[in-house]
Specification:
The chain has 291 residues and is of the alpha+beta class. The chain is built from 8 helices and 12 strands. The longest helix is centred in the middle third of the chain and has 15 residues.
Length: 291
């Protein structure tokens, strides 16, 4: 059996795989059984691990069930709202904002929230705006993506007062440039227009979720919401018919692996890979391969 640090797969040169290596995987290491050389890895996955990972689906039907998110948070630099995000997401977001030269034109106004914070926000919105508004724009406590540390609300900082529940984040200007680059950095607009019947939340052009590459690029190409993407992956079982996507010089394979009452053993033949729970009943496996 190899050491648990081998859960973090890198390239031969020591660089992390596209989209980065997540702290979730490091925390899982003690629960994994690893065997074989780096290009062939055997994992034993248990049912409780479906609730952990960068691709977990959190919505009105599937609540957040992990207690690991807060341990992996970091505060955003020079942020007046005290926003904290998953460490890797914070790094990716900073790189994206730097890439487009955003400066202080884009501000993160909300990131990770505890259960208590979401409860207070929900109650305050009910009191101030009423039930119709609240159920449209504020997730129930325990069912908010903000519990994961992988969601952020962004605002255009143009000198006007910022609405922290519904910040202005238009589709043109610096915000438009952000959107053009978002998928390449692994971000999706989580609640698009005309998809509330799928997401359970009204259109929120300010809310971005980190899912990583290539998943954000696939969703951008297909027009899938995160809910639709999860359903799509169920049609691509790992080891039999994975979804394939070209990412630069590499071919990426993505597939779904169901779990049950007993642990599931899976062998991944790739030097770089990622395993994430789906927060429902299985795992999403991603492997990077060179042609």
């Amino acid at each position: 059996m190899t050491g648990p640090t081998q859960i973090l797969r890198t390239t031969a040169a020591g660089r992390p795989h596209p989209g980065g290596t997540h702290h979730f995987e490091a925390e899982w290491a003690a629960s994994f059984t690893l065997d074989g050389p780096p290009e062939r890895t055997t994992l034993v996955l248990t049912g409780d691990q479906v609730h952990v990972g960068p691709l977990i689906l959190v919505n009105q039907s599937h609540g957040f069930q992990s207690d690991r998110a807060e341990a992996g948070l970091t505060a955003l630099a020079a942020n007046p709202y005290g926003v904290r995000l998953d460490r890797h997401y914070a790094t990716v977001l900073a790189a994206l904002l730097d890439q487009i030269g955003a400066g202080d034109q884009i501000l993160a106004v909300s990131g990770w929230r505890s259960q208590a914070e979401q409860t207070a926000l929900y109650a305050g919105s009910l009191a101030e705006h009423g039930e119709e508004f609240t159920v449209s724009y504020v997730a129930r406590p325990g069912h908010s993506e903000h519990h994961t540390g992988l969601a952020v609300d962004l605002a255009l900082n143009d000198g006007r007062p910022i609405d922290e529940i519904r910040p202005d984040f238009p589709y043109d200007g610096i915000c438009g440039r952000f959107r053009v680059e978002a998928a390449r950095f692994g971000l999706i607009e989580r609640y698009p227009a005309a998809k509330r019947h799928l997401t359970g939340i009204a259109h929120e052009p300010w809310h971005f979720r980190y899912v990583g590459a290539p998943h954000a690029e696939i969703m951008a190409a297909t027009g899938d919401t995160f809910e639709e993407y999860h359903q799509r992956l169920r049609r691509h079982p790992w080891g039999r018919r994975p979804l394939r996507h070209r990412l630069g010089p590499e071919l990426v394979e993505v597939g779904y692996l169901p779990t049950g009452a007993e642990p599931v053993t899976v062998t991944i033949e790739a030097e770089r890979w990622q395993v994430s729970g789906d927060n429902v009943d299985g795992f999403i496996i991603t492997a990077w391969r060179r042609p």
